[in-house]
TrEMBL record:
Stretches assigned to the SusD-like N-terminal domain: 98-219
Organism: Dyadobacter luteus
Domain of life of the organism encoding this protein: Bacteria
Subcellular location: Cell outer membrane
Name under which the protein is recorded: RagB/SusD family nutrient uptake outer membrane protein
Domain RagB/SusD: 264-509
């Protein structure tokens, strides 16, 4: 499929149609470079391009890696950083950490695009440029995306300024409370769910767009943050029958199973695009970033052995989450022996090092244990090939049905239905993992372990732990580390405080 770039210019609006290079055909656009403002929004394709520009906000390597994946996994202590960002081990994240500023700026850029798009879509509807059905779908996608940006802003920082209309003043507004932000997320997701189709009703060319199911999943999560557990359980229940667990856990993140039956919302990238240094933001660094140095010359993130050891015997999620010395990669798409560096230095070896000589990097400072959920793109080899395929074009799953089921179980438990919670955990989540009923009677402890073993190495674990209120206990019990007061939240970026004196820093920073 040939992808075209869309470049639009809206001088008086906050929306800018940046270059678009995304994976699925629904994001395919014609080149509109040089178009005048008077010519915009005169045909349906213009409205589609407008909303496509909001999806493009996700396409920044630090947005997904250092502002979402880092926090979801380094703060739980199940993964560590090799390099300059080891401060996560002590929860002393500096206020000048640039990745957080990038995340804040990009998220609000997405919010601004969404806010400006909504009245344009309505004008196009009024002027009969687009049909009611297309206007509803585009508005639903816009509300969903705005809600997603605020969802992750609040998950990271707590309360942030709510901008729900195009900003016409200097934009220097104080923070809303965390509850106010999640209330706005819930409102956006509810409205989006009323406007969007189910995934099953999308045309093949539109796979990857926001759907009713995605809006309901995030609505349920927002209700969980607001402690409206009965409402959340009812919201999650609406997804029953619309999504299914993959039969095998390993299949969830397989390169040849993108937008699979368990996936609810994933960022779309371009497989086979430019994956070298200087690439466009249609690919990401998450894959080779976490491969062993012996494979990719990077190895900047690695797993703690205690995560590896924590899986129960027979848990099929283990090697699909983390590999240890002597293990064979579980994906049929990945053969460790085929990587150029392995061929050169360890010919014939198809395991992650050996028990006697684990792969800990040239300086021996890594653990020898590495995540496998993002190590699935066979084209991403790191700085070791010719040409060097450093980046990956594989989609990144932000929300999937396994997470929804666990959140539903927590919602049921906190609504007084412990039996219903255990029925989901034992009868669906653990059954898929090849395990019997969980031992013990403390449902919340069982819940935390299932969150960990189902979602480690993805984009949600720490946020779900914080939402549960058990984040400090989780870290203390598993790693003996006391989370300093307030440090379960990220600091408001100092550059944002410097430009907006209305912002007040989180306590502890």
């Amino acid at each position: 499929m040939k992808l075209y770039k869309t470049i639009g210019r809206l001088g008086f609006l906050a929306v800018i149609l940046l270059p678009i290079s995304c994976k699925e055909s629904f994001l395919e656009q014609k080149n509109t470079q040089g178009i005048t403002e008077d010519a915009l929004f005169k045909k349906p394709e213009d409205g589609i391009a407008l909303v496509t520009g909001i999806y493009d906000t996700f396409h920044d390597v630090d947005f997904t890696l250092k502002a979402l994946w880092y926090q979801a996994n380094f703060l739980s202590q199940d993964f560590k950083n090799f390099g300059a960002d080891t401060f996560f081990e002590t929860y002393e994240v500096p206020t000048g950490f640039d990745a957080l500023n990038i995340f804040w700026s990009r998220a609000y850029q997405g919010v601004a695009r969404a806010n400006s798009a909504i009245p344009i879509i309505e004008n196009m509807r009024t002027n009969k440029v687009i049909s009611d059905s297309l206007a509803n779908r585009l508005k639903g996608e816009t509300l969903f995306l705005r809600g997603v940006f605020y969802y992750y802003l609040a998950s990271n920082f707590g309360g942030v300024p709510l901008e729900l209309q195009t900003v016409t003043d200097d934009g220097r507004h104080p923070r809303n409370t965390q509850d106010e932000v999640f209330t706005a997320v819930a409102a956006d997701m509810k409205a989006a769910a009323d406007l969007l189709p189910w995934r099953q009703d999308l045309a093949a060319a539109d796979v990857g767009r926001a759907t009713k199911g995605a809006a309901l999943a995030y609505l349920g999560d927002a209700q969980m943050w607001l402690k409206k557990y009965a409402d959340a359980a009812a919201t999650y229940e609406q997804l029953t029958g619309k999504y299914q667990l993959e039969d095998k856990f390993v299949n969830i993140h397989e390169f040849n199973n993108q937008n699979g039956k368990e996936s609810i919302f994933e960022i779309q990238y371009i497989a086979g695009s430019d994956m070298t240094w200087g690439h466009a933001n249609d690919s990401h660094w998450l894959a080779t970033f976490g491969m062993p140095e012996e494979v990719s010359q990077f190895g900047y993130s690695f797993a703690d052995k205690r995560l590896y050891d924590s899986f129960e015997v027979g848990d099929t999620r283990k090697l699909s989450t983390v590999l240890g010395p002597g293990d064979v990669h579980p994906s049929p798409a990945i053969r460790i022996s085929d990587y150029p560096l392995v061929k050169q230095n360890y010919p014939g070896m198809n395991t992650l090092g050996t028990v006697a000589k684990p792969w800990k990097g040239s300086d021996g400072l890594r653990s020898g244990y590495y995540g496998t959920k993002t190590w699935r793109d066979p084209a991403a080899t790191g700085n070791s090939g010719n040409p060097a395929y450093i980046f990956s074009g594989q989609n990144l799953i932000l929300m999937r049905y396994g997470q929804v089921l666990l959140s539903k179980a927590e919602a049921l438990f906190k609504s007084g239905n412990a039996a219903g919670a255990l029925a989901i955990i034992n009868g669906q989540i653990r059954k898929r993992a090849g395990l019997g009923a969980a031992a013990g009677t403390d449902v919340m402890k069982i819940m935390l372990e299932e969150y960990r073993h189902e979602l480690a190495g993805e984009f949600s674990l720490w946020f779900l732990l914080r939402r549960s209120g058990e984040q400090a206990n989780y870290v203390k019990e598993r790693y003996g580390i006391a989370v300093p007061p307030g440090k379960d939240l990220m600091p408001i970026p100092q550059r944002q405080i410097a430009t907006n004196q209305e912002l007040i820093q989180n306590p502890g920073y």
